[in-house]
Amino acid sequence: MYKTWWKILAAVLVVYTAIAGLLLGVPRMAILNETIRNLYFHVPMWFAMVVLFTISVFYSVKSLSTQSEADDIRAVESANAGVIFGILGIVTGAVWAKFTWGQFWSFDPKQNFAAISLLLYFAYFVLRNAIDEEQKRAKIAAIYNIFAFPMMVVLLFVLPRLQDSLHPGNGGNPGFNSYDLDSRMRLVFYPACLGWILIGYWVYTLRFRIKTLENKHNTL
Amino acid sequence: MHLAQQVKHLIKKEIILEWRSKYALNGVLLYVVSTVFVCFMSFQIIDKITWNALFWIIMLFASINAIAKSFLQESKGRQLYTYTLVSPVALIIAKTIYNSLLMMVLTVIALAFYCLVFEPNKDIDILMYLLAAVLGSLSFSTIFTMVSAIASKTGNGGMLMAILSFPIIIPVLIVLIKFAKNAMDGLDRSVSLDEIGLLALINVMVMTVALLLFPYLWRD
User: Fold this and answer.
1) A-chain residues within 8 Å CB-CB of B150?
2) How far apart are the first and last CA of chain A?
């Protein structure tokens, strides 16, 4: 494998969180009960998604100034990987919601806004498919990506705080930090975040390399 | 030419062109009036929440129709000619200011007509509602102008315009509807300060990003 050490670290961390997350002790909370363990799987998905989308915007900015094809592929493949994590985040959240709030989809602001921010990226992919010419596609898609990113930040980090939500950390509720994250949970939660972010980055580099090879193969 | 001078001339050009044909003005007014009539026929009496939501839905589609034409309907030749004469920054500023002016006029007329057909809530704070309408038309204009510039570059702009702009406008619309609802219920004005601040912030952000990105976009 190419540059192995952080990939092994990612795998070890995720395996550790899967085992320790299911076996180690957690605080006893009403309603949440044992579902609190989903924190180790649900929240890291969103961290990984935001990191991947940030990488995507970074390479979009870069591709505008360098006009290089590699930067464009990096931008689109990290957005692709980010969307996978976004969908996983919504699915893990929906399962959690079913067992704590009673329904898979409770029309909670955060659920809705997460879905809308995924729509932004689907629109980005539709825009890419609408343009045939490669250089033009790279440029216009990069512009839309940069234009949409601040809106995603508003959707995910600003608006939910202004509305009443069932999620902890919104509408005046304390964040999950003071809410239930005791020291035992921190031992699993932080490694889980790091592990999933690294896995996400790994998925993105793999996709980037496959896409580059495909392009090379097609031009030959 | 100096930037301010260029912006002034471009706005003047847009206003003269619009005044000759009155296409957008009359077209959108007719659109709003007929939509309000269709709603009146089908609803007869509506409650408070529907009154507010309906107004913003009508304004959303009216403004997409009005602003989509700002880049989509300009001929390639005229665009090239404009690009040789003025700087891209002046062009996007002028288009945004012109669209905001047009939308403000349209929104105020539409609001007056809407109140005529559907009786508003008795407690309505009409000045605040007007402020919401003005801020709304401003936000619609800044966002849709840039999206219309992006969509016009793809060739098949009409459908892409809706796909690209809806996910971006939804956060703005959520804040607007909340702000407008506060005004409609006649709540104390200090309640809506958060929303006004957020809308202003979003507008400043969108304008900054648009100013930075448009010079990359117009060069073909």
Assistant:
1) 127, 140, 143-144, 147
2) 26
A38 token code pair = 């989903």
Are the C-beta atoms of A57 and A145 separated by less than 8 Å?
A: yes
Task: Indicate which of A118, A136, A145, A154 best probes the interface with B, i.e. most B CBs within 10 Å of its own CB.
Answer: A154
Residue-range domain boundaries for chain B: 3-218
Q: Spell out the domain ranges in chain A.
A: 5-213
Look at B217 and A117 and tell me if their CB atoms are within 8 Å: no
Amino acid at position A123, single letter: A
Contact assessment for residue B138 and residue B102, using Cβ atoms and an 8 Å cutoff: no
- Report the Cα B165 to chain-centroid distance in Å: 12
DSSP string, B152-186: HTTS-HHHHHHHHHHHHHHHHHHHHHHHHHHHHTT
Say which of B160, B170, B175 has its CB closest to residue A130: B160
Considering only alpha carbons, which residue of chain A is nearest residue B167?
A: A120
pLDDT in tens, B100-151: 999 999 999 999 999 888 888 788 888 889 999 999 999 999 999 999 988 8
CA distance B41 to chain A (A): 31
CA distance A9 to A24: 21
Rounded CA-CA distance B156/B135 in Å is: 30
ipTM of this predicted complex?
0.87
In tens, the pLDDT along B11-54 reads 998 889 888 888 778 888 899 899 998 988 898 888 888 889 99
Q: A152: number of CA atoms within 13 Å, CB side?
A: 29
Q: For residues A45 and A195, is the Cβ–Cβ distance under 8 A?
A: no
Neighbours of A116 (CB within 10 A): 20
Smallest Cα distance from A202 to chain B, Å: 28
Q: How many residues in total does chain B contain?
A: 220
**Residue B60: per-residue pLDDT:** 92
In a mutational test of the A interface, the residue from B72, B164, B169, B204 whose CB has the highest number of chain A CBs within 10 Å is: B164
- Determine whether the interchain pair B150/A144 forms a contact, defined as Cβ–Cβ distance below 8 Å: yes
Long-range pairs of A19-22 with CB within 8 A, sequence gap ≥ 24: A20/A187, A20/A188, A21/A188, A21/A192
B187 three-class SS: coil
Query: Is the pTM here over 0.90, yes or no?
Result: no
